[in-house]
Batch of 2 targets.
Target 1
Amino acid sequence: MARGVMLMSGGIDSPVAMHYLLRQGHELLAVHMDNRPFTDDSPLSKVVDHLTILRERYHQPIRLYVVPHGSTQVTLMRETDRHVGCVLCRRFMWRSAERVAEREGATFLVTGEALGQVASQTLSNMRSATASVHLPIVRPLIGLDKQEIEAVARSIGTYEISTRPGVCCQAVPDKPATRSNLVQILREEERLDVEQIIDDCVRKAVIL
Amino acid sequence: MYRTLRVCSSGGGFEALPEPPRPVDLARIRAALEEAHVPVLDARVMLIATLEVEVTISRAGRLLFKTADPAMADRAFGRLRPLLEGGALGGGPAGHD
């Protein structure tokens, strides 16, 4: 079986996506993009608790990389067009996950994305976001609706963790673009030293 | 301008909104916070200040207090409110981690 890197947000979807792949026998590492100070401690604590359940269920160690993302968010807010902030944020998340994958010898990336739930999950925004990486991306939940995902989350014991109170990410723009094009996104990124930002973040990651 | 403090939609903090909606001068707010030695992060479209609790101040004037403790949120709101409404920051202890 293959080794992959899973982006874990603390939400309902990502532990369910991880469950599907672990069930098939794949080996996974987890990456959590730590958005503090734009959120509180709750997303990270949820991810830790999700992994406790999944590690026990599937008898895998599932190493967790906690990658600081707050300073990247500040840079994006200061230097780029807010309307495409979600897409730009996702591109940095993907790149960080891919960098971890390269370090760990993983050959694919995984996300709990479904289609159309939030601004970053429209087809055009997904395309713009994932154009930032080269590894294949697996989306186990793409064909499921919200009710189906929640039912699985309840059955594996992660739903209650995911729905604990917390502070939503404050970095989300008031009016995020639901459509983007890559030319526009690349133009925004020209203002940034992308490689330096990724290097700094992954270097500062805490491994749990 | 600000009427009430209420639990935010995801339940992990408290928020206050200006009524009627009214953008705030983040530069003025930042200067006043810094003068009071309150740690503040300027992300251009919002400020994150550390009073008794950490609070996000958006350009639109929305305040989000990152605490589940209503008394703590209320104290921090009480300090910030005069500043947001055109006056000075209310008295209280400096921010801490």
Target 2
Amino acid sequence: MPQPITMVKRPDATGGEALYVEYCIMCHGPNGMGSGLLARRMDEGNLELRDNLTAEYVVTAARLGIGNMPSIPRGEVSDEDLQAIGEYLAAGPHGGGQ
Amino acid sequence: MAELRLPPDFTLQKLVQAQRAFESVLGANKVFFEELDRTSYLDKFAVNDEAHHPSGAIACESVEEVQAVVRIANQYRLPLFPIARGKNLGYGGTAPVLEGSVVLDLSRMKKIEFDEELGTVILEPGVGFYDLYDYVQRNNLPYWLSTPGNSWGSVMGNALDRGVGYTPYGEHTKNICGLEVVLPDGDLVRTGMGAFSNAPTWQAYPFGFGPGWDQMFVQSNFGVVTKMGMWMMPEPESLMGMDVEFDRPEDLKVMVDTIAPLRRERVLTQSPSIGNWMRAAAVLTRRTDWTDEPGALSDDVIDAIRKQFNIGWWGVSLRLYGREEVNKAAYKILEEAMGNAGPMAIKPTSWVKGQPLEYTGWTGTPMTFPMQNVNWYGGRGGHIGFSPIIEQDGDKALAQFQRTYARYQEWGVDYQGSFAFGERHLTNVNAMVFNKDDPDMMAKIDPFFRTLVADAKEQGYGEYRTHLDYMDLVADTYDFNNNALRRLNEKVKNALDPNGIIAPGKSGIWPRAFAGERGQ
């Protein structure tokens, strides 16, 4: 199993990327539950490597939950922070810093 | 979407007033009463989608804010349901016991204070396993975490629900050393040596003076925990052990009887977990990869799964932690004992500081991939667990397995069971994975669960932890002297929380104010 990615492994991350590492990468990193289940349905299971995500889709999927992903409430991740995460993923693919 | 549900005997007008009061102390951006918010705080793995709807949520970022909202809740007699990170999936997650409660979301409180010499830490509720792991890595601290299979949640939240990991520090509730708690009247207390204002030993000595209160705030609704002291395991020089497979279901007896004395003697200091072939299959594959036959998996399919993964009917991993010379001596004992037990295969493993580390539960690495098991039946998956405490005895464990397995066959549910060692008990975790998009399956989960509870009750086996739906049912099984323990818990509850505003119904403890809700 690869080592989990946390902020110590992305020391230069700021903004949406830093928020993604703090709130999302536990399940959406290379060995996470989210990546594993997405890989069963699509070619690219790792969200950071996708080139077809929109911020709106990310925010909707996270807020409402989708498939096996539980919803992420505002108390945990604010609207502002979730928007920044969505914009970061929409600007993908992001290849570095694995 | 979830339309508004109010607590019993509550009005919309009062809720709006309470909401305004929360906004005045927290700011509107930490108060969440829209329909989207209610939906997002539902139990994602709910078996009954109609139960446990919150009326809204609030997020606190400091102890003072928690005290302020508790005072407001008292003023309006509005029930609050505190959550740490709300990732207690399979037990209710973010949702409250009592419909209409306001979720008190503590996930933004993320402070960590570490004592590097003693290996102790003070954590706020929002510190997740990944957050603590990052902190330890970043500061190069020579300590390992103990992580559960679902490490997405809060370290404190997990310990306060008696969650477990797999290292010698695996019984997380036992590592608690000192709490800070906001009581239901808004008062602030520190337990143990924390009650002594300038004691440097709050995380060193778990007891303090007089009655010990730490466990009173575990699985309870007597207060809102805002800080938890915890011991962490010093990084060992060596990690050594074996992964062992056994061929037949009946081998459970010899496995338990071989490992148990080693655990009681503390040759083994970690909590091995004996699990069946489903553990690997449900995480790595889907049921449709193997069969489309309905009912519980047939022996043919089980054989195919075992062959594919090269595993036994049961598997267990034993691990030794500590000085290399000590581990080498202990390993010889394990090798002889397990060899005599007649295993199918023994695979030794060993690591010494300086070598590349395995990133697994044995090394306290946080992980989420085990949750892939919710996709076993496809659809919107979920799971619920039935986990009684049984004797640490091979015959009893085998009987419990046979009884439970027969029920899984009868109800047509695929069996995922494990027997995890405490020092003198076994926790028999039985998972029921389900597909929320399969109405026939969903209709049988509740009656199946109740059957298992009743079977266990006959044997004297009670659950160690349960989902919101079953808190009353499980509390009822603890029935010595006409449920004397529940009476005691409720005397304490009513003394500490006369308005009954903190998590009414949690663990079957109902305050006077909401006593009519029991069993609803």
